[in-house]
């Protein structure tokens, strides 16, 4: 049976012949490492057999998951698509990074043949070739090193020698074909080399102490297909490498110190981290278009964040519903720091405030499209404003990532799911989402006016309505007003100038020939009880009109009928509006005006259920009706009792005493004495 289904290959695998896509059988499975969250093993040790001999192998990443999910079982036949062979002391073992279940499997899963253990001592060193402990060798369909590498940085030893020199080496460059997967790194092998993409780079931080004086440090996070890991650089090495390392670029890195990760500062799912030293070699991979490892996320629904403790680290995927412009604040130490706040929601029915800092805040796009989904990795849970999220050192974000969950969230949002979310944060921003309200509560324009007029403060409400008119012309019927304004592409403030002379931003000093355009659309909202004048700003204008302001302006300049059709489609379309309104006074005239905070298509199934719930409130059970009737009659019954008591008091008043007249025995009324009238 073994001869029919397996071909001898174990000897070739461990003698460095490295056959392409060999088929082997798993004859033993053992868990050797567990993930930090304690859920599933991240690495599994197996014995692989060709029916005659067997050797040791380690499954990482997705390969380990195939075992835990029982896609691959004991005695299954597998095809090794991507693997490397490492040597530790006198033993060799294979690290399997990609495998597939063989199309042909035994009728009954059982061990094929009687394989004997691979003789690692004699087989480790082929004839005529010395053994090099710790040097990984790639096999299968591992990526081939590109012919044109970028410059390499050789870090000389300490003691006055030159630190990191990012220059071409006289010797042969590192070979990507010998790359070790990040998940295969271990403290017992110091001769390794990884090929990884930079996910995130921290700012340079400086510190001072009595022992070392002024020092600096920075870190960057890298990933490959198997895992992710943090790399730190200190002092001279940090100063040399910080301007060189670029996010999104791929590097070959070897000879660093591998040590246990400090979980106080690292949020990555890896038990180790790397510290660069003066023996480190770092080389840019210039042509790495075929190397695009995905960021390893572990998403938490926003609705579950309320139960997470403060300072916990989470990954979140959500629709960005509101983004503020990047602002600069001064810290207590006098240092300027960039800050940006936003609100995100997901299909758990919850929303939360999120804050980015520093380069993360400045690099976040100012204008996101409608229903843009952003993935955040490594956010910190805080108690600020009840519950919120904050970026920290190592936080990574990705706009519209290529994930199945991205499309699911977009469909949920476009289907009106955002109209019923509950905020976990008490928003304090001036342009924020307002106070926490019941997501099922619906208002009318009349109720909104009464609340705002009675309190004299800002009133919030959600109501069903339509846009009856876009106020794009003056009341005197003069020149048409645009639905946008010329904005600074840097800070979004209004710019002066025109397309001929150029534009200038008086706020941040930017100047250029081309500006951006942002919506500021005055309109009339109408519902069953009345109307209100409101303004839709950039994000909400995009939701209403279905196009960005730049696109609509271009359409108006090039195709006026098509522009008119877009504007017409925005009216008389039932939508769910979240509104912030207050009484404003201009030229001694007061007017109740609103600002649209969100506009989403009506989910008629959801709204129908809410209407049914309102109707049922009027259908009280008979017991409740009886109790209500008794309660309503109680005051009247008390009045009747009091009236009877007063009437009884009047009737029982004692009369004046009179002479008693003895009645006749017959009980008839006494008769007067008429004897004095006798003759």
From TrEMBL:
Residues 480-611 form the Replication factor A C-terminal domain. One of its GO terms (molecular function) is DNA binding. Residues 416-441, 639-679 are annotated as: Disordered. Belongs to the replication factor A protein 1 family. Pfam families: Rep-A_N, Rep_fac-A_C, REPA_OB_2, tRNA_anti-codon. Keywords: DNA replication, DNA-binding, Metal-binding, Nucleus, Zinc, Zinc-finger. GO terms for cellular component: nucleus. It is found in: Nucleus. Residues 302-400 form the Replication protein A OB domain. One of its GO terms (biological process) is DNA replication. Its main location: nucleus. This is Replication protein A subunit.
């Amino acid at each position: 049976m073994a001869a029919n289904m397996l071909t001898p290959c174990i000897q070739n695998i461990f003698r460095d012949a490295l056959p392409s896509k060999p088929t082997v059988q798993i004859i033993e499975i053992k868990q050797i490492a567990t993930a930090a969250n304690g859920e599933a093993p991240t690495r599994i040790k197996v014995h692989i057999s060709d029916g005659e001999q067997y050797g040791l192998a380690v499954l990482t990443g997705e390969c380990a998951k195939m075992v835990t999910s029982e896609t691959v079982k004991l005695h299954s036949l597998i095809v090794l698509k991507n693997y490397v062979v490492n040597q530790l002391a006198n033993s060799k073992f294979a690290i399997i990074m990609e495998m597939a279940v063989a199309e042909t499997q035994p009728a009954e899963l059982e061990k094929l043949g009687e394989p004997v253990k691979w003789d690692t001592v004699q087989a480790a060193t082929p004839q005529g070739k010395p053994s090099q402990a710790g040097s990984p060798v790639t096999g299968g369909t591992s990526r081939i090193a590109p012919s044109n590498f970028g410059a390499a940085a050789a870090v000389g030893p300490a003691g006055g020698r030159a630190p990191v020199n990012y220059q071409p080496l006289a010797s042969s460059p590192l070979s990507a074909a010998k790359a070790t997967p990040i998940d295969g790194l271990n403290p017992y092998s110091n001769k390794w080399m990884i090929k990884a993409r930079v996910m995130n780079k921290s700012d340079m931080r400086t510190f001072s102490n009595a022992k070392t004086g002024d020092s600096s440090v920075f870190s960057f996070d890298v990933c490959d297909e198997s895992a992710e890991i943090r790399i730190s650089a200190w002092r001279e090495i940090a100063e040399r490498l910080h301007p060189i390392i670029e996010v999104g670029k791929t590097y070959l890195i070897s000879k660093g110190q591998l040590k246990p990760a400090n979980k106080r500062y690292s949020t990555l799912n890896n038990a180790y981290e790397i510290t660069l030293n003066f023996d480190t070699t770092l080389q840019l991979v210039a042509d790495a278009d075929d190397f695009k490892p995905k960021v390893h996320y572990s998403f938490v629904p926003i609705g579950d964040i309320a139960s997470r403790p403060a300072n916990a680290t989470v990954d979140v995927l959500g629709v960005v519903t509101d983004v503020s412009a990047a602002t600069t604040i001064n810290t207590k130490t006098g240092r300027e720091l960039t800050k940006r706040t936003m609100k995100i929601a997901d299909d758990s029915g919850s929303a939360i405030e999120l804050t980015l800092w520093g380069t993360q805040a400045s690099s976040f796009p100012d204008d996101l499209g409608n229903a843009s989904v952003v993935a955040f990795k490594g956010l910190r849970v805080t108690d600020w404003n009840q519950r919120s999220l904050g970026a920290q050192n190592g936080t990574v974000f990705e706009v519209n990532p290529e994930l199945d969950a991205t499309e699911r969230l977009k469909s949920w949002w476009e289907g009106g799911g955002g109209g019923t979310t509950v905020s976990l944060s008490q928003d304090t921003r001036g342009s924020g989402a307002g106070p926490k309200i019941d997501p099922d509560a619906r208002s009318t324009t009349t109720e909104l006016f009464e609340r705002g007029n009675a309190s004299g403060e800002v009133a919030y409400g959600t109501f069903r309505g339509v846009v009856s008119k876009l106020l794009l012309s003056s009341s005197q019927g003069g020149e048409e007003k645009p639905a946008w304004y010329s904005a600074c592409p840097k800070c979004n403030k209004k710019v002066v100038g025109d397309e001929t002379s150029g534009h200038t931003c008086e706020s941040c000093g930017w100047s250029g020939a081309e500006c951006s355009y942002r919506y500021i659309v005055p309109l009339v909202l109408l519902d069953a009880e009345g109307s209100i004048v409101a303004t839709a700003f950039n994000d909400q204008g995009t939701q209403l009109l279905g196009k960005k302001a730049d696109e609509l302006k271009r359409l108006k300049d090039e195709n006026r009928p098509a522009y008119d059709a877009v504007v017409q489609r925005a009216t008389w379309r039932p939508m769910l509006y979240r509104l912030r309104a207050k009484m404003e006074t201009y030229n001694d005239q007061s007017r109740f005006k609103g600002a649209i905070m969100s506009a989403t298509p009506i989910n008629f199934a959801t709204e129908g259920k809410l209407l049914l719930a309102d109707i049922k409130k009027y259908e009280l059970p008979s017991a409740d009706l009886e109790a209500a009737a008794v309660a309503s009659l109680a005051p009247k019954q008390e009045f009747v009792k009091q009236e009877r008591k007063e009437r009884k008091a009047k009737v029982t008043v004692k009369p004046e005493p009179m002479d008693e007249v003895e009645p006749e025995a017959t009980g008839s009324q006494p008769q007067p004495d008429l004897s004095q009238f006798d003759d």
